[in-house]
Here is the input.
Amino acid sequence: MSVDPPSDHSRKPLRLLRRADQAAVAVLVLLGMVSTVAWWGSQGGFQGRMIEVQRAAPRVATFQVDLNQAAWPELVQLPGIGPTLARRIVESRKRDGPFLDHEDLERVRGIGPKTVESIRPYLLPLPPAGNMAAR
Here is the structure.
């Protein structure tokens, strides 16, 4: 007597979720999609009221440097001042003392009146000469 293998029709398909669970997942997905579309509509939707990056106003970051305290990497950030001039500024400050006013930068080889004027907006005001002696 031989036993026939079960036919393909008698096998039940393997399901990870029962029908009731599948329906619950479908309802949750549909609810999520409806909520997303409702939020999108409340934010402007097709009317174009949503914020676009291209329309955002540009923001400008400004910085100022303390000429008597800044290290050369900070000074390199100034327009027209490269690594060589920045190192010369630091060496001049060490050798000849602190800068008493912004025009004192002209004592550094390679810096003239035009360079001083171009970087002046980026320099913090220097304290009066009497206050520099206390340092």
About this structure: The helical segments are 19-42, 72-75, 83-96, 113-119, 129-132.
